[in-house]
Amino acid sequence: MEDYFRVGVIANTHGIRGEVKVFPTTEDPQRFKGMKEIILDTGSEKKVLEVASARFFKNLVILKFKGIDSINDIEKYKGKDLLVTRENAIPLNEGEYYIADIIGATVVTEDGAQFGILKDVLTTGANDVYVVDHEGTEVLLPVIPDCVLARDMEQKIVTVHIMKGLM
Fold first, then answer.
1. Distance from the CA of 38 to the CA of which of 20, 21, 81, 119 falls in 20 to 30 A?
2. Whole-Å CA distances, 12 to 9, 84, 95, 113
3. φ, ψ for residue 102 (rounded to 5)?
4. By CB neighbour count within 10 A (0-12 exposed, 13-18 middle, 19+ buried), where does 162 fall?
């Protein structure tokens, strides 16, 4: 179970006063508006930063952190991830789950036979797609009711129906 969720990546600096352009990796970029603090993953450590302001520009979020007032203080963090803790993640509705929690799940067919291990989830415009390692081969399963029959998040088991043409 992941303790941190990535909500953005520092794409570049913005101006000379320590602001950064962030590419959001969250479903709801508006969440940056109410954010009080965020965790910067430097690679060697995780630093808690206090968010001073957030505004939007095209598909990016412009963030300003308290105590970082120069381009020189922030420039070294280009390409680094911005994280939130599980407690500060967007609350889930019933039947929803965090993608990080389903990675590694055992995938079984409707008759109970083990099919493979869920390795990744691709987010597409229409529906998500599960990437399943099946005997050393990647199989892409659309997350639609005809294909994904059930998810047991406690047991980490996904039950699927292998539709004609998927193999």
1. 119
2. 9, 20, 36, 48
3. -100, -15
4. middle
pLDDT at 123: 82
Asked if 35 and 42 count as a contact pair (C-beta separation under 8 A), the reply is no
Task: Tell me the residue range of the domain where 13 lies.
Answer: 4-88
DSSP labels, 89-114: SPPPPTT---HHHHTT-EEEETTS-E
Residues 4-13 pLDDT 10s: 888 999 999 9
Letter string b/e over residues 76-111, b meaning 16 or more CB atoms within 10 A of that residue's CB:
ebeebbbbbeeebbeeeeeeeeeebebbebbbbeee
Residues 6+ apart with CB under 8 A from 140: 122, 129, 130, 131, 132, 166
The answer to whether the predicted template modeling score (pTM) of the entire model surpasses 0.85 is no
Q: Please identify which residue in the block is written with the tokens 């303790």.
A: 3
9 and 72 share a domain?
yes
**Beta strand pairing call for 46-57 and 37-41:** antiparallel
Last-in-domain residue among 24, 53, 88: 88
Question: Where residue 9 sits, what CATH number does that domain have?
Answer: 2.40.30.60
Sequence-separated contacts (24+) of 49-56 with Cβ below 8 Å? 56/29
